């Protein structure tokens, strides 16, 4: 996925790092040349200096091929302008914008090109989930002492594993299904259990990424 992030503050930089680690192609835009120079080499993304409120700068940054634009500047006015340009002028499929002042939240809707409006207090993982729309597979926690990660993936009507037996699903190496949560109740993951839409699987793994879990089930 090609992602443009406007605003290289703490939030924008964190989002860029997470999405880049998930193997997305990320461009981070900011007006502060000195700050971008500090990020050079520390953040594995493309850095562009300039004002994302300028159509020419957005086009130079690759907005024409972007799947997602996230406006995370500290100014609501800028975030709205960026969103409107991304959606209306460049037809970006998905646009997310940070709402800094709760009094301005009513402006952040489709009229301004915003698909997802995210309050500034929203946790980082929730913001990324909402912005990307990738809510079927999410890393829940990292158990540092055990050296494993717990990942949740939800079976939907569109999942290619819906209706298949769990034992027929090829899991990434070092990964096990800990439980299947169905109708709010955890069940023992028997190999013969057929996966149903709505099932939430909790997996434990030493090495795999969310993308690999997603690829196995979705």
Strand order of the largest sheet: 3-2-1-4-5-6
| Cα-atom radius of gyration | 19 Å
* N-to-C CA distance: 16 Å
Beta-strand residue percentage? 25-35%
Q: What shape does the CA trace take?
A: elongated
Q: What is the residue-averaged pLDDT?
A: 86
Low-confidence stretches: none
Largest sheet: 6 strands, parallel
Which oligomeric state applies?
single chain
Helical fraction: 25-40%
- Counted beta strands: 11
Output the helix-strand order.
EHEHEHEHEEHEEEEEH
- SS element count, helices: 6
Structural class: alpha/beta
Care to describe what's here?
This protein has 218 residues and is of the alpha/beta class. The mean pLDDT is 86. The strands form 2 sheets. The protein has a 6-stranded parallel beta sheet, with helices on both faces. Strands 7-8-11-9-10 form a 5-stranded antiparallel beta sheet, covered by helices on one side. α4 links the parallel β4 (68-71) and β5 (94-99). It contains 6 helices and 11 strands.
Write a compact overview of the structure shown.
The chain has 218 residues and is α/β, with parallel strands linked by helices. The protein has six helices and eleven strands.
Write the layout of secondary structure elements.
Elements: E1 2-6, H1 10-21, E2 25-30, H2 33-39, E3 46-49, H3 55-61, E4 68-71, H4 76-89, E5 94-99, E6 116-119, H5 124-132, E7 137-143, E8 148-154, E9 175-182, E10 185-187, E11 200-205, H6 210-217
Parallel strand pairs: 1-2, 1-4, 2-3, 4-5, 5-6
Antiparallel strand pairs: 7-8, 8-11, 9-10, 9-11
């Amino acid at each position: 996925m090609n992602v443009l992030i406007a605003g290289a503050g703490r939030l924008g930089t964190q989002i860029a790092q997470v999405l880049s680690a998930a193997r997305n192609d990320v461009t981070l835009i900011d007006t502060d040349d000195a700050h971008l120079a500090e990020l050079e080499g520390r953040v594995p993304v493309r850095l562009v200096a300039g004002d994302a409120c300028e159509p020419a700068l957005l086009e130079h940054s690759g907005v024409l091929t972007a799947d997602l634009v996230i406006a995370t500047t500290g100014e609501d006015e800028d975030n709205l302008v960026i969103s409107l340009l991304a959606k209306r002028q460049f037809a970006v499929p998905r646009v997310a914008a940070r709402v800094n002042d709760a009094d301005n939240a009513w402006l952040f809707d489709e009229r301004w090109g915003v698909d997802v409006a995210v309050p500034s207090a929203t946790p980082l993982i929730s913001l990324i989930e909402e912005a990307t729309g990738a809510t079927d597979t999410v890393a829940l926690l990292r158990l540092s002492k055990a050296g494993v990660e717990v990942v949740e993936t939800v079976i939907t009507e569109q999942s290619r594993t819906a209706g298949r037996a769990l034992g027929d699903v090829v899991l990434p190496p070092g990964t096990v299904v800990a439980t299947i949560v169905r109708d709010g109740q955890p069940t023992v993951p028997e190999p013969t259990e057929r996966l149903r839409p709505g099932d939430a699987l909790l997996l434990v793994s030493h090495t795999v990424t969310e993308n690999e879990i997603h690829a196995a089930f979705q």
